[in-house]
Write a structure and sequence with these properties.
It holds the Pfam family zf-RING_UBOX. The structure is a single chain. With 129 residues, the chain is an alpha+beta fold. It is built from 2 helices and 5 strands, in the order H-E-E-H-E-E-E. Strand 3 and strand 4 form a beta hairpin. The longest helix is centred in the first third of the chain and has 25 residues. The N terminus is likely disordered. The structure holds zinc ion. Zinc ion (ZN) binds next to loops.
């Protein structure tokens, strides 16, 4: 019924299925909240942000992933994403292959910009261990 999130990464179901499942999980709490707010003369539909956080469970906790556009590998602590000065992001191992046989500089595979090894920046995604 609910999307399985066994790998702790992406939703294994479609985004629509995930949203419907999350709404179904949150509905009992939302109905209670609406009833409490109605007694206080407020309308849940008129608030921009819920006054309480509704925990949906670990199956709805996702973290961003990065797949290198060159190698198609997912980033790992051993192969982290690196931002080039042009803003394109590649996995470290792909950068290493581009740097091979070159003296600390290479051309971005996606735009004409020349990239130097010292101008690479690590990319961190919030929520990744
Ligand atoms: Zn680029």
């Amino acid at each position: 019924m609910f999307p399985l999130n066994t790998r702790g990464a992406q939703a294994s179901e479609s985004p629509l299925t995930t949203v419907v499942a999350a709404g179904s999980a949150a509905l009992p709490t939302l109905l209670k909240l609406a009833a409490v707010m109605e007694k206080g003369g407020q309308d849940l539909r008129s608030v921009e942000q819920l006054p309480v956080e509704i925990a949906l469970g670990p199956e709805f906790v996702f973290r961003p992933i990065f797949a290198c556009p060159v190698s198609r590998d997912m980033s790992t602590p051993d192969n982290p994403p690196l931002a080039l000065p042009c803003g394109h992001v590649l996995a470290e191992q792909s950068v290493a292959k581009l740097l091979k046989n070159r003296s600390r500089a290479f051309k971005c595979p996606y735009c004409p910009m020349e990239c130097r090894q010292e101008s690479l920046r690590p990319v961190t995604f919030p929520g990744i261990d």
